[in-house]
Design a protein that fits this description.
alpha+beta, 6 helices, 25% helix
C-alpha cells in the first residue's frame, strides 16, 4: 500500500487527533515552564519534538503496517473541542488541540495494515498522537480520563467553529501495554450506523499516546495492540536515554 493512499484514506476519517497534533500551540523543541526555565525533574526534561520523532514507530518496527507521520500545518477550526459536561472534558481533551493539561511536545501519524493490492484502501485506518508532558502530567492525563469514563456516558462537543456533535461513550477493550492505559468507543449519536471510533490512551512515563481506530467502511476499528506495544517500548528507550 502506497503511503500516498494512506494519507488520502486518512483524510476521510474524523481527523481529530491529527488536527490536534498539527494545531497545538507550541512546537516545544526546548520545553519551558512559564518563568522561562527548563522544566526538569531529577535532571530529566520532557522529550522534545525531535526526540519524539526519533521514537516514533516506522514500517520496519511493525512489519505488515504502513506508517505515515503527519507533516501538515493544519489550522483547522475543528481542532479545539469543548464538552457540555465538565466531567466529560478530559475525553474531549484527548482529541483537542487545547487540552487542560498542556502537551510539551507532540507528533502525529496515521498507520494501517499494508494491503496486498497496490492502491487498495485498508480495512482499518488508525491515527495516533504521541505527546510528552511536564513531570507528573502524563499521570494526571490518564487519571483524568479514567475518572471521566467512570462518570461520563454522553456529551455534546462544540468545536471552534461552533459545530456541535453529540457523542455517547461505551467501554472499550483492555489495553495491555504502557504504565497505565484505557480505551473507550466514541459513538456519534447523529450517525449511529458508521459514526464510531475506538479511542485508546497509553501512558508511558512522561508521555501519553492516543490512538483513534476506525473502519474504512465506517464504525470503530479494533485495538492496534501490536503497534501500541512497540510504540510504548520505543518511548521507554527514549525516556531512559534522557540526560
Amino acid at each position: 500500500m502506497h503511503k500516498t493512499r494512506l494519507r488520502l484514506a486518512a483524510a476521510a476519517l474524523p481527523a481529530l487527533l491529527l488536527a490536534a497534533a498539527c494545531s497545538s500551540s507550541d512546537s516545544a523543541d526546548s520545553p519551558k515552564v512559564p518563568d522561562g526555565t527548563q522544566n526538569i525533574l531529577s535532571g530529566k526534561a520532557p522529550l522534545t519534538t525531535d526526540q519524539l520523532s526519533k521514537a516514533l514507530i516506522t514500517d520496519s518496527d511493525v512489519p505488515g503496517y504502513t506508517v505515515q507521520p503527519s507533516q501538515t500545518a493544519d489550522t483547522s477550526d475543528t481542532s479545539t473541542l469543548t464538552a457540555d459536561k465538565p466531567v466529560c472534558q478530559p475525553l474531549a481533551d484527548i482529541t483537542s488541540s487545547n487540552p487542560k493539561i498542556h502537551r510539551m511536545a507532540f507528533i502525529g501519524a496515521a498507520f494501517a495494515k499494508t494491503t496486498k493490492t497496490s492502491g487498495a484502501t485498508p480495512e482499518v485506518i488508525n491515527q495516533m498522537l504521541v505527546a510528552s508532558h511536564a513531570p507528573g502530567d502524563a499521570k494526571k492525563v490518564i487519571d483524568s480520563v479514567k475518572t471521566a469514563l467512570a462518570g461520563c456516558t454522553a456529551f455534546t462537543a462544540t468545536d471552534s467553529s461552533g459545530t456541535k456533535t453529540p457523542f455517547t461513550i461505551s467501554k472499550g477493550p483492555a489495553v495491555p501495554t504502557g504504565d497505565e492505559s484505557v480505551s473507550w468507543v466514541m459513538n456519534d449519536a447523529a450517525d449511529k450506523k458508521t459514526g464510531a471510533a475506538l479511542i485508546a490512551v497509553v501512558q508511558t512515563g512522561d508521555t501519553v499516546t492516543a490512538y483513534v481506530s476506525v473502519k474504512s467502511s465506517g464504525g470503530a476499528g479494533p485495538l492496534p495492540i501490536d503497534v501500541a506495544r512497540k510504540q510504548s517500548e520505543k518511548l521507554k528507550t527514549a525516556l531512559a536515554a534522557r540526560k
